[in-house]
Task: inverse folding
């Protein structure tokens, strides 16, 4: 494999400055046709400045969200090295492919356009542009310095050549060890023994025992914060945001209690908090490690709180792996696997209690759905109210409906009674169950299929537990099944990925007991200790939900709630967009008319409150009603 060289012409060095100032003075960005600026990512300016402090700093650790510009800080550092030091530098990526892409698309154009380095082809490439090789860059005439882009998975890239500057990206993607060689980061550190150089480590976090989190704790632990008016530092973690009003989330200062919206937070000053670790790691020369972290909630140029909330809801619907990616890459927070989390029964019962009933539901309840679990002699039913976006749940009632096995109606009578039942909100709006999902797997299957075919507000479902390696979405597959073996008579059967629903419900339970209330229950309606015990009856072990043993705590409350959540998702994504629910259309039209009347009344009040400036106001004369010829009506009466 040929090695490519960039030969550096001898030129006078420009006035000395730190890497951050160098980038703003001398780095021209072709994409924006302007000089480099930290305006979109101000949280990278201080770490870039510290990278040039070789006297007092040995290592800089960055724990930040993905796609926010962390690789640009490494490129700024590389340009500063070319400008002022021209020492051996090793830039290590997680894989060889990513290193090749970075070299081809960003490093070589940067060295050519900004640093004035001439590209020359090697003899091994035989005059052809060898784009598919790892690059080495000759940074000085006669000094033999070079920049090498290596892979964390190749021991040859991490050994032999001594370097002064060590730049490492995406640490948490690195292998734990190279077979027969040991830890790749330890191998890279050995390259710096002869120098008093600088190490830079960047990555998005993953788990508590991830590499970047461990090295961050060894540094000064400085967090990018919004500064409250009282002087307190607000890191704005995702769990600190209050979503009581989904249209305008808020966050409160823990020191003074001042409440801020997202726009208010943007208007505050932002800076790094004082070091949380008073005794950071020091090297043999007495230089310390500086570590910095930035949460996605304060990356205003890349993420808004509402967009993050949308990403979270989508990730919760997809499964645990998708939710971990959201927490790590967008929030830049440590993900705690569900195996390590627990929801205690007393805490859940205490935090989710609210004062309402099925006939004075909160006005935030926009529609109702039901989840029904069938047994041989009874139905387990839960009716749940949902907000307009489906992110907040209100338990309406949970009950067991027995039916007579000898009766001709049987299960049909129970379901028809449920379909005609009416509930009400505090503002007088009556609500019926918009959609019911009925379990058809194992009990009364043909009768469930028959009721599903007769009613447009009921659908037969079957729950499938996903394997550990594959996570299915909650709404998995819609198919058709025959009625009582009749080929011509068919109805729909919806297959659910129940693990995704259980994951989403568990996350809502965790958020509820930690302050972000999204689950609500009232004191009656069957929501007693037995119900909550059933809601928490299953535990997730090794990525798989384990059902309770036969004879122990029943899990029907959990199944009913998951079915109701699936019904709400299907209702929001399939029925409302197609305008198939007349009751929902009627309610929304009434809301639009009332809002229009309110705006007209507000405009009249504004006009009346305008100050009088001495001029006579023109008053329109009342219009005379038009005369109507009623002669035709007289004839119609006869």
Result:
């Amino acid at each position: 494999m040929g090695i490519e060289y960039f030969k550096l012409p001898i030129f006078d060095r420009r006035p000395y400055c730190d890497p951050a100032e160098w980038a703003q003075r001398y780095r021209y960005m072709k994409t924006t046709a302007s000089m480099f600026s930290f305006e979109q990512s101000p949280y990278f300016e201080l770490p870039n400045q510290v990278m040039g402090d070789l006297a007092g700093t040995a290592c800089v650790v960055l724990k930040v969200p993905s796609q926010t510009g962390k690789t640009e800080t490494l490129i700024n550092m590389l340009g500063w090295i070319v400008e002022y030091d021209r020492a051996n530098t090793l830039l290590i990526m997680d894989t060889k492919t990513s290193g090749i892409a970075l070299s081809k698309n960003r490093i070589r154009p940067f060295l050519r356009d900004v640093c004035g380095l001439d590209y020359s082809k090697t003899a091994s490439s035989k005059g052809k542009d060898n784009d598919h090789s790892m690059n080495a860059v000759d940074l000085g005439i006669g000094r033999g310095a070079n920049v090498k882009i290596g892979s964390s998975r190749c021991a040859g890239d991490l050994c032999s050549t001594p370097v002064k500057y060590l730049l490492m990206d995406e640490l948490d993607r690195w292998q734990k060890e190279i077979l027969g060689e040991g830890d790749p980061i330890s191998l890279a550190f050995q390259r710096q023994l002869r120098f008093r150089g600088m190490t830079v480590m960047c990555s998005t976090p993953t788990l508590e025992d991830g590499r970047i989190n461990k090295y961050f704790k060894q540094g000064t632990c400085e967090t990018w914060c919004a500064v409250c008016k009282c002087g307190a530092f607000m890191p704005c973690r995702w769990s600190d945001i209050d979503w009581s009003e989904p249209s305008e989330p808020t966050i409160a200062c823990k020191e003074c209690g001042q409440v801020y919206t997202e726009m208010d937070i943007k208007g505050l000053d932002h800076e790094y908090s004082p070091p949380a670790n008073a005794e950071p790691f020091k090297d043999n020369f007495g230089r310390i490690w500086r570590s910095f972290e930035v949460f996605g909630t304060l990356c205003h140029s890349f993420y808004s709180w509402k967009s993050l909330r949308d990403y979270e809801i989508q990730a919760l619907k997809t499964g645990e792996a998708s939710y971990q990616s959201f927490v790590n890459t967008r929030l830049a927070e440590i993900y705690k696997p569900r195996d390590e989390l627990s929801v205690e029964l007393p805490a859940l019962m205490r935090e989710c209690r609210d004062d309402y009933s099925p006939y004075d539901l909160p006005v935030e309840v926009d529609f109702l759905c039901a989840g029904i679990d069938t047994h041989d002699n009874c139905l387990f039913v839960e009716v749940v109210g949902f907000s307009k976006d489906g992110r907040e749940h209100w338990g309406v009632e949970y009950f067991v409906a027995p039916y007579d096995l000898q009766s001709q109606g049987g299960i049909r009578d129970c379901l028809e009674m449920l379909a005609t039942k009416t509930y009400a909100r505090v503002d007088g709006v009556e609500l019926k169950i918009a959609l019911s999902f009925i379990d058809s797997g194992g009990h009364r299957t043909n009768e469930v299929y028959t009721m599903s075919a007769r009613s447009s507000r009921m659908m037969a479902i079957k729950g499938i537990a996903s394997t550990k390696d594959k996570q299915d979405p909650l709404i998995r597959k819609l198919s058709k099944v025959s009625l009582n073996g009749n080929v011509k008579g068919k109805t729909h059967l919806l297959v659910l990925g129940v693990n995704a629903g259980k994951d989403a419900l568990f996350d809502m339970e965790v958020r509820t007991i930690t302050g972000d209330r999204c689950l609500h229950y009232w004191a009656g309606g069957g929501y007693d200790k037995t119900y909550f015990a059933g809601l928490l009856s299953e535990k997730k072990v090794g990525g798989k939900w384990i059902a309770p043993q036969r004879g122990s705590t029943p899990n029907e409350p959990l199944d009913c709630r998951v079915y109701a959540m699936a019904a709400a998702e299907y209702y929001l994504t399939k029925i409302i967009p197609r305008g198939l629910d007349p009751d929902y259309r009627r309610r929304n039209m009434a809301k639009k008319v009332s809002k229009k009347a309110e705006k007209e009344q507000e405009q009249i009040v504004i006009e009346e409150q305008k100050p009088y400036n001495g001029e006579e106001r023109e008053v329109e004369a009342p219009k005379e009603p038009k005369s109507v010829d009623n002669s035709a009506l007289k004839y119609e009466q006869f």
Q: What stands out?
A: The longest helix spans residues 582-608. Residues 1-11, 121-142, 628-638 have pLDDT under 50 and may be disordered. The two ends are 103 Å apart (CA to CA).
